[in-house]
From TrEMBL, chain A:
WD repeat extents: 50-82
PROSITE patterns: WD_REPEATS_2, WD_REPEATS_REGION
Listed name of the protein: Actin-related protein 2/3 complex subunit
Sorted UniProt keywords: Actin-binding, Cytoplasm, Cytoskeleton, Repeat, WD repeat
SMART domains: WD40 (SM00320)
Pfam annotation, one family: WD40
From TrEMBL, chain B:
Alphabetized UniProt keyword annotations: Cytoplasm, Cytoskeleton
Compartments, as annotated in UniProt: Cytoplasm, Cytoskeleton
CC per GO annotation: Arp2/3 protein complex
The protein, known as: Actin-related protein 2/3 complex subunit 5
Coiled-coil intervals, chain numbering: none
Organism this protein belongs to: Parathielavia hyrcaniae
Comp. bias intervals (Low complexity): 140-156
Length: 363, 205
């Protein structure tokens, strides 16, 4: 396994990050701005700053094909940044929410995006040609608390959302005139807007931090604050699911998870490193950490001279420097995303966290 | 003058911050019972008679020397959603079992339970009992347990102003030390995730 690529961007938490499809541009949410980095040699150099929000930016996403960036913030707004020769041009989206926007993702079709919010609803936004602006429709029922995360089904109609009321839900976000009628799936056949196709919670009901559909869209995984991940396999529309598998772990809770094919999930969170889960319909288990311990440079202790040891004892009261974690990330990982994929399999994924680092891992 | 005016303007414009907007909104969490967020209780309510029966079974197992069976028995039938009395009785049963197990047997036993089917769930339940036990014993040392005027429970388990622990205080102190050593062993086996689950879980013992 090759060593991970580590970039320490700044000493601020990174709320969210997104790479453009060609990997040349990296967008990072830092405080109230979106910073765009481009790769120069082996390092990321700050290229542009997108200033438009006046409160903390909570989430960003770059559409892979159109290159549009969508960002949302605690100031209750979402902005779509259109790339032009003169730089990025922001367009305000009317979300009609009166609490913070927490999470935003483009649909795979890139004609819509969904914004989760503290207003107990999800705003599904699409562009109206005749009025030349972005409008939003609200997914409201039966959400009872802040929406922390959303994820799109490959058909761009079904939307999964995790919330602090401890439920992961699957909704239809079908919008006439924007979406083509979707093929029936195990989640549902007729899908008018705001159809609730599934509502799941695990036994101990921690609030949900992350949701993700499997590459085929036929399974849903979510990570909750009770240090568990739960995988749901639906059977048929309006039927109880085929299997709901919960894996409680000995670790701290996971903040983000991605699927690697249909039989592996990678999750990372408060333990500052990523873990793999393997399984299928019959069961899942934790199969180990992504990071190999004892990496050169950090794991091996340098040969210390006696003089140096006593000097350290004198200066700091201890001989060893124990202020560093043994993991690459030095604080909670808040977001992981696929970086390089071949078919359904993830070959590389990127992670960012509270420590201001972005790390690209080879699976 | 201008400073004063600016100041009053600032206070005026900040007044809205103190409005409790949740109270004004109909479907805000402040205005509905958060219990409705959870699924209906799946287990039937545990009655006091059930707990007594369990207690008798557990004691019999203990007398027969099967401490592991006794512990499993307690953890597989947690007293969720019972009356206060039933839950207290269940707690006492668990503490009784915990006190009867030797320190050297703890870790191997926990590992066996964790490795078995539903083991993670069992240890979560055990952790819930341990925390409940700590809360109960610390409030007992915080104030005289049988007087109606209870003192507020001391979260640390130590009290500066309470009466010197007497004979009963010593036994609660012993119970606390047993719980603390079990806590350490459970975390060793079930990890920190176990503590997190106790805190997030809405099913209280």
């Amino acid at each position: 396994m090759t060593a991970p690529e580590v970039h320490h961007l700044f000493h601020n938490p990174i709320a969210d990050h997104s790479f453009s499809a060609d990997h040349k541009t990296l967008a990072v949410a830092r405080n109230t701005t979106v910073e765009l980095y481009s790769k120069v040699g082996n390092a990321f150099k700050l290229k542009d700053e997108l200033k438009g929000h006046d409160k903390t930016v909570t989430s960003i996403d770059i559409a892979p094909n159109s290159g549009r960036i969508v960002s949302c913030s605690q100031d209750r707004n979402a902005l779509v940044w259109e790339p032009t020769p003169q730089g990025y041009k922001p367009t305000l989206v009317l979300l009609r929410i009166n609490r913070a926007a927490t999470f935003v993702r483009w649909s795979p079709s890139e004609t819509k995006f969904a914004v989760g919010s503290g207003d107990r609803l999800i705003a599904v936004c699409y562009f109206e040609e005749e009025n030349d602006w972005w409008v939003s429709k609200h997914l409201k029922k039966p959400i009872r608390s802040t929406v922390t995360t959303v994820a799109w089904h490959p058909n761009s109609v079904l939307l999964a959302a995790g919330s602090t009321d401890a439920h992961a839900r699957v909704f239809s976000s079908f919008i006439k005139g924007v979406d083509a009628r979707p093929e029936p799936t195990a989640w549902g056949e007729r899908l008018p807007f705001n159809t609730v196709c599934g509502e799941y919670m695990n036994n101990s009901a921690g609030w949900v931090h992350s949701v993700a559909f499997s590459p085929s869209g036929d399974a849903l995984a979510f990570a909750a604050h009770d240090s568990s991940i739960t995988v749901v396999y639906p059977s048929a529309p309006e039927q109880p699911p085929k299997a709901v598998i919960s894996i409680n772990t000995q670790l701290l809770p996971f903040m983000s998870l991605i699927w690697n094919g249909e039989a592996e999930i990678i999750a990372a969170g408060y333990d500052c490193e990523a873990f793999r889960f393997a399984g299928g319909v019959d069961g899942w288990q934790l199969s180990g950490a992504v990071e190999t311990k004892g990496r050169p440079g950090l794991g091996d202790q340098r040969e210390e001279s006696a003089l140096n040891m006593f000097r350290q004892m004198d200066l700091k009261g201890k001989a060893k420097d124990d202020t560093q974690l043994k993991t690459v990330h030095q604080n909670t990982i808040t977001m992981i995303r696929p970086f390089e994929t071949s078919g359904d399999a993830v070959k590389k994924f990127s992670s960012t966290g509270v420590d201001g680092r972005i790390v690209i891992w080879t699976v | 003058m201008s400073i004063i005016r600016e100041h009053t303007q600032a206070t005026l414009s900040d007044a809205w911050r103190t409005i409790d907007i949740d109270a004004l909104e109909e479907d805000s969490p402040a205005n509905f019972d958060t219990a409705t967020l959870r699924p209906a209780q799946q287990q039937p309510e545990v009655s006091e008679a059930d707990v007594r029966q369990l207690q008798a079974q557990v004691r019999q197992l203990l007398r027969g020397g099967d401490a592991e069976g006794a512990l499993r028995g307690c953890l597989e039938a947690p007293a969720y959603g019972g009356s206060e009395l039933a839950r207290d009785a269940a707690l006492h049963t668990v503490i009784e079992v915990l006190q009867s197990i030797k320190a050297s047997d703890m870790t191997p036993m926990l590992r066996r339970i964790y490795g078995g089917a539903g083991g993670s769930e069992c240890l979560d339940v055990l952790m819930k009992y341990i925390y409940k036990g700590m809360a109960a014993t610390s409030s007992a040392t915080g104030g005289a347990p049988r007087t109606p005027t209870r003192m507020t429970p001391q979260p640390t388990g130590f009290s500066q102003i309470g009466p010197r622990p007497g004979a009963s205080g010593e036994s609660t102190g012993a119970a606390m030390s047993v719980l603390l050593s079990w806590h350490e062993k459970v975390v060793e086996v079930a990890g920190l995730g176990c503590i997190g689950r106790v805190m997030t879980d809405w099913r209280k013992v």
